[in-house]
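Running this now, will post back.
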Amino acid sequence: NFVTTKFPIAGVTNNVISFDSSFVSRFSRWNCEASSQCLSVCLGSLRIAFAAVNANSYLQKALFPGIGYPAINASVSNLHKIYVMNPMSGTTVDEPVTYSIDVPLTSYKPTDYYKCFIRSSSSSGWTPCSSPDYAPRSGSAHFLSCSCQNTGILAVFTVAAPTPPVVPSYQEIRIAIHLSSSSSPSSAQRTTLFDRLTDATGLRASRFVAISTVDSSTVQATLRPATRVDDLANNYAIQAIQRVIGVHGGFIAYDSVKITNVTYEPIQRVLSDDGHARKIIVNVEASFTTILGTSNSTAPLVSSWTTAVVKALRISPYRVKNTIVERGVVFNFTFTLPFDEEQEPKISAEELSRMLQESVAYGE
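Update: finished.
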């Protein structure tokens, strides 16, 4: 049972490290001394708290000389030194050792990507261990499973996200979630599915609308475009969903049902493409006096509301002109035509007006 057994390391409550069959073959009977054979080997470990590294400039320079990757400020775990020792001499066995270790994270964001790096005793730099880019939760903590070929000091760092799929940023995305189920999910089970999916991806729950059951093994939803500064754009949102369903062992949607696949397609808006600007009239259910308060001018209101529209639709402020707030309360403005210097994609005024209507309909 040795290969399937996990062992503890210093500073970690759970049993987190395991070794493969090659380790058994190497150390079940080996020449630990010139004239002696040993039937075992000693596992050594120590934990260096990241706070201690942060507070010690000499330790920082020794471990992170500032050349190459990773950077100290990208660390999201404590540092763990793993080594194998000769039980007779007490010396470190300096040779390749294959093992897997679940490193607990000290900081976690569902939208971040992670990788495990090790600094071996025979190297002056950090090299990557094999690890997934997603850290699943176990109990109250998140762990990254690292498979390493050498002993040394290891830690987990944030890394750049891979190139996301090509997905339009300004359109709604129809998502089909395929399940390992033979019976249609109930409303409560669908709720559990999306609660778990949003928790794992960091996506706002309100971005998923028009949720319905297609058949016993498929649930459909519409992903709304990003409307907040901290929202993931559609391409990164799809990437986040694909990442979590690919986690080892499968992503549990509800009960024992897993998500087996996710497919998606952009929802094209039906437009006339008339090439005209659009005058927008927004009726606000509020008292004019209440909104203005003690101010004698609507200028601050016009400025803040214009900024809100620009940020929600993620467009250039130059696309919104002739803004005015009138009694009623009515917010009038014009979506102008795309201009030459505008960044791609250049969205027509007609489509912008449709996007605003959708945003109002969904209470965004």
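The chain has eight helices and 19 strands. More later if anyone needs it.
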